[in-house]
Amino acid sequence: MPYQFEDLKNSCHAEWHAYIQHSFVQQLADASLAPEAFQHYLKQDYLFLIQFARAYGLAVYKSPTLSDLKQAKEGLKAIVDIELDLHIRYCEEWGISEQELANLPEARATLAYTRYVLDTGNRGDLLDLHVALSPCMVGYGEIATWLNSRAETLRGGSNPYDAWIAMYESAEFQDAMQSEIRWLNERLADVSSARFDQLSRIFSDATRLEIDFWQMGLTQSD
Ligand SMILES: Cc1ncc(CN)c(N)n1
């Protein structure tokens, strides 16, 4: 049977669930998250996005065909044009200047996750790299959808984190996510079960590193 992206999620169901429904996400949704935890997360996420933009740059470099090139470019665009632009403006609203962002040290969770993805991409092929990148884009798109499906999620002006949810539920972000899933589904349909097992390991590692990233924000650890 051909593999699909859904099979990667099912191969680490518990980890995926712990990532999507992490306490950080739930507290953000009901507005109980400490502002200092959110600010710490925002700062580290800026550093994270810079490294992930580099990883999409690596995917551009590793793309053998025009359609692969276009897909990698979409990922790079989603980070640089959608997320980073909004992120910098959003950080300003939370009292964090662009100059402060540029001089921040990376927390260990940021280092571990971003360097894992870059290393996986350097050592492996384009599919390894896209699989390592996928919990990032697909996970946040799924988190926005999940949050909107819950009665406990506060939307609008009564939630200071509402703009964060809005960014990931935007049509632009959701379209980029669907396009990444389609690209992965086409590639996964042809892999053997041994190759799928290798890819599942990468997907599960990246998902566990996403959980650590939320935890780093929640505990404000460096
Ligand atoms: C840690 C992390 N993971 C995912 C995303 C969504 N691109 C993000 N901004 N930050």
TrEMBL record:
TM region positions: none
Listed EC numbers:
3.5.99.2
Q: Which family does it belong to?
A: Belongs to the TenA family.
Leading EC class: hydrolase
Q: What is this protein called?
A: Aminopyrimidine aminohydrolase
Source organism (scientific name):
Marinobacter psychrophilus
- A GO BP entry: thiamine biosynthetic process
Q: Which reaction is this enzyme known to catalyze? A: thiamine + H2O = 5-(2-hydroxyethyl)-4-methylthiazole + 4-amino-5-hydroxymethyl-2-methylpyrimidine + H(+); 4-amino-5-aminomethyl-2-methylpyrimidine + H2O = 4-amino-5-hydroxymethyl-2-methylpyrimidine + NH4(+)
Q: Organism classification, top ranks? A: Bacteria, Pseudomonadati, Pseudomonadota, Gammaproteobacteria, Pseudomonadales
Keywords from the UniProt entry = Hydrolase, Thiamine biosynthesis
